[in-house]
Specification:
- With about 625 residues, the protein is mainly β.
- It has a single domain, classed as Maltoporin, Chain A, CATH 2.40.170.
- It has 5 helices and 33 strands.
- The chain has a 22-stranded antiparallel β-barrel.
- Strand 23 and strand 24 (about 440-460) form a beta hairpin.
- Residues about 1-35 have low confidence and may be disordered.
- It comes from Hydrogenophaga aromaticivorans.
- It is found in: Cell outer membrane.
- Belongs to the TonB-dependent receptor family.
- Keywords: Cell outer membrane, Ion transport, Membrane, Receptor, Signal, TonB box, Transmembrane, Transmembrane beta strand, Transport.
- This is TonB-dependent receptor.
Length: about 625
């Protein structure tokens, strides 16, 4: 493979960023005027941003378009506390580590629909199309007392386009390196009691050779998706809403046979139907029924796995002055279709009762949550959370919180060829404190956290007790011990003249408590530096992303070197309706690996054209 490792010391990169006027950070370090007025993820209901105690980042559509990012993972990699790894290009297996925790420890929702794989554990990030995304909310810290199983490290909520009064069409076309081509169409509008949104997108790329050894072919991909949202105001205070996302992606990958053209097809679908009712100024009800499916199939090597998650939610909220009380009844049904499991082992359900209380009184904000889940396999799991914020000046605010969380083993971890039926649920305890400052263009944030996980599940090599007890890949899943995720997140920004500056720094220590070693593929240091400015009719920008060294394996014998990337963007309005976007990623053409043995893209160029009539 060509050596593209043109080293750029981290100390020089900030100067390069400022000189090149890099773009605004797609995270909580964005200017306050860009933040939405409300956030949903912190409490499961829309509340003012000023009332949020949790550590939350919000990315809106304007920020996504300005970033020029190719995929959802590229956007998330710029958010404080998140590290992303890939087995190759944008369509390959993607892992998202929130505060250093395993990818399965982040609960993921698309328009309120839970998406998860009961075979791999966690969401299929590469299958969620960025072209359909309107907004992303990232909640750092455990939230099982609100959402139940899976939210040990946090929650990511993804919202597709939604309608509004009028008619707003838009079209995007783009081309890039590796013969990448994409196109998307969006139609949004509404009249009287009806609102609607429809989005269509497609993308193709020849890709690059993902595996550094083995089959030296290009691992290209193609994908297409559709999203829809329909809202109907039945009466004042009563609204019915239906949502749909259907994404299909086919990508090449390098398997065990060097001459074989392996293909993987990922199909992700979400369906949601909800009814919201405001019975009075103090009482609201929401009823929701959702289904999320995740299907993955490979050819010519035969493999098929399909996960379906159905949820039913009844939520009531009562407002009492400056306090709000909520009560949720929720049922979740998981089903897995996989060749390694039998029909008798393919499903389970969880029934839950959750209570929430929030209070805003002067400078004080309090949030309390408690939840009990009754699992058909594991019995009862109770979780709780408490968070407090004190605004000791209009600009300064201090926070303190604690919470517990859990994740039940996947059906694949228990009943597949590699499964262990008597696995225990993974549980967590988290403590954190923070300090935030916001005044005009100046902002700063500090968060210190410690999250301890027990009964950590991992694949254990060796004879074991499962059916896969012999052969080259003998082993099975087991509760291997404990992990501790500690760290500090610093973020901030200001405006100097016409230049907006932003930065974030994560100092993390993801540690295996049994061995004392660092958890695999987790960096201890990661930073992002950003800026943007206006030059004539152009918005010029760029960013530096630095990820510290990591170990590819649990034994800490395979070191992955640190790397720093410089990305540049430029955009201009050609006419009031037409906008040109240009992005260069990895300007120094640096060769690096986020997973040992798998290549990453070198220098890439992308040019996009947007039509959005005013």
């Amino acid at each position: 493979m060509k050596n593209r490792n043109l080293r750029a010391p981290l100390a020089v990169l900030p100067l390069a960023i400022l000189a090149l006027s890099s773009h605004a950070q797609t995270s909580a370090t964005s200017t306050a005027t860009e933040l939405p007025e409300t956030v949903v993820t912190a409490t499961r209901s829309a509340i003012p941003v000023a009332d949020v105690v949790a550590d939350v980042s919000i990315i809106d559509r304007e920020q996504i378009e300005r970033s020029g990012a190719n995929g959802l993972a590229d956007v998330l990699s710029r958010v404080p506390g998140i590290t992303v790894t890939r087995n190759g290009g944008p369509a390959s297996t993607t892992s998202v580590y929130l505060r250093g925790a395993e990818t399965r420890f982040t609960a993921v929702f698309v328009d309120g629909v839970r998406v998860d794989s009961q075979s791999t554990g966690g969401a299929s990030w590469n299958a969620i199309p960025l072209a359909q995304v309107e907004r992303i909310e990232v909640l750092r810290g455990p939230a099982a007392a609100i959402y139940g199983s899976d939210a040990l490290a946090g929650v990511v909520q993804i919202f597709t386009r939604q309608g509004e009064a009028g008619f707003f069409p838009s079209v995007h076309v783009g081309v890039g390196t590796h013969n990448t081509r994409d196109m998307s169409v969006s139609l949004r509008g509404g009249q009287d009691a009806v609102s609607y949104a429809l989005g269509l997108s497609g993308e193709r790329s020849d890709g690059f050779n993902a595996k550094l050894s083995g089959n030296p072919d290009r691992d290209g991909y193609r994908s297409h998706s559709v999203s829809g949202r329909l809202g109907w105001k039945l009466a004042p205070g009563h609204e019915l809403e239906a949502t749909l996302l259907d994404s299909e992606q086919k990508a090449g990958y390098d398997g065990f046979l060097p001459s074989q053209d392996d293909q993987g097809q990922q199909d992700l679908r979400t369906l949601g139907l909800s009814w919201s009712a405001a019975w009075s100024d103090t009482w609201k009800t929401r009823v929701g029924v959702t289904r999320g499916t995740d299907r993955y199939e490979t050819t010519p090597s035969p493999y098929l796995t399909n996960t379906r998650i159905d949820t039913y939610l009844l939520r009531n909220e009562w407002r009492m002055g400056t306090a709000t009380l909520s009560a949720d009844l929720e049922r979740r049904e998981d089903r897995l279709t996989n060749g390694s499991t039998t029909p008798e082992q393919n499903d389970r359900d969880q029934n839950a009762l959750a209570l929430g209380y929030t209070l805003r009184h002067g400078a004080h904000t309090l949030q309390l949550n408690a939840r009990h889940d009754e699992d058909s396999e594991f019995g009862g799991q109770s979780t709780g959370g408490a968070a407090y914020a004190f605004a000791f000046t209009p600009a300064w605010r201090a926070t303190l919180s604690a919470g517990t969380a859990f994740r039940v083993p996947t059906l694949f971890q228990r009943f597949s060829l590699y499964g262990t039926p008597d696995l225990k649920a993974e549980t967590a305890r988290n403590f954190e404190t923070g300090l935030r400052y916001q005044s005009g263009h100046d902002r700063a944030g500090f968060t210190l956290y410690r999250n301890e996980v027990k009964n950590l599940i991992d694949y254990v090599s060796g004879p074991g007790t499962c059916a896969n007890g012999v052969g080259e890949f003998a082993g099975c899943y087991g509760n291997t011990g404990r992990a501790r995720y500690t760290g500090v997140t610093l973020s901030g920004g200001t405006r100097v003249g016409t230049v907006n500056l932003g930065a974030s720094l994560d100092l993390m220590r993801p540690k295996d408590q049994e061995t004392g070693l660092r958890l695999a593929r987790r960096a201890q240091t990661q930073a992002t530096l950003t800026a943007d400015t206006q030059l004539a009719s152009w918005t010029l920008g760029g960013e530096v992303q630095h990820v510290g060294s990591r170990f590819n394996d649990a034994a800490n014998t395979q070191r992955l070197p640190a790397y720093s990337l410089l990305n540049l963007t430029a955009s201009t309005a050609l006419t009031p309706d037409w906008k040109l976007q240009v992005r260069v990623d990895n300007l120094s053409d640096k060769a690096y690996e986020s997973v040992l043995g798998y290549a990453t893209a070198g220098r890439t160029l992308y040019v996009g054209l947007n039509w959005s009539p005013r």
